[in-house]
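Troubleshooting log. The previous structure file for this entry was overwritten by mistake, so regenerating from the original sequence record. Sequence copied from the archived sheet and checked twice against the printout by T.R.
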Amino acid sequence: MSSVQSYFSLLRDWKRLPAYRAEPRVDSIVGFALPEILLHNRNERVTLVIPELPLRIGSVQPLHEGKSFSNKSYKVDFFVMTEGGKNYLVEFKTDSGSRREKQDDYLEAARDVGLGAVVEGILKLYQATTYKKKYRYLLAKLQKAGLISGGDPEHTASVTRDRLDVLYVQPHAKDDDAGRDILDFVAVAEALRERFGGDEFTEAAAQAFLAWVED
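Regenerated output below.
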């Protein structure tokens, strides 16, 4: 067995343990493959993927504005922009049953307030944070994508396409997932093989995702 096969075999084994979190180990594979996943399954061309996008609490849940924690943030696994004008908040789970109601609530709240409010919230987080360098890098990406304008540090939001959609990437849809937009791990595996098929790493990753469909 090669080192690649051994690695994914180990992941599949460890994922069966009660406290092991597989998401941080494979989320980069999903993020890397998201453009192909959406092209293969939705015919949508991705123009931007940002991992761990901060959602400012006071901005996505305005009832908390002004409270001591309003400048704290939730995180969404990926923010995705597409050529056709769609914007996705993508939440990735390696276990369909690990989703939390609180998480669904703040993602839906972000969807409801729209992309403009989310970007304004990031600008406010930049003003409040001590991690200026990392936030400046994030702001540069948003500026390049046309979502903010102005010079550092006085940026202003410049959002012309405000709609956000919430997309879940998880092993399979559950009975209570009616009405939610879900791509399952079969779709992930197919997209990996379609775009990167033939190499050992991709095939081992695809097999792992297929094995997790019913885990």
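The chain is about 45% helix and 20% strand. Archived copy saved in two places this time.
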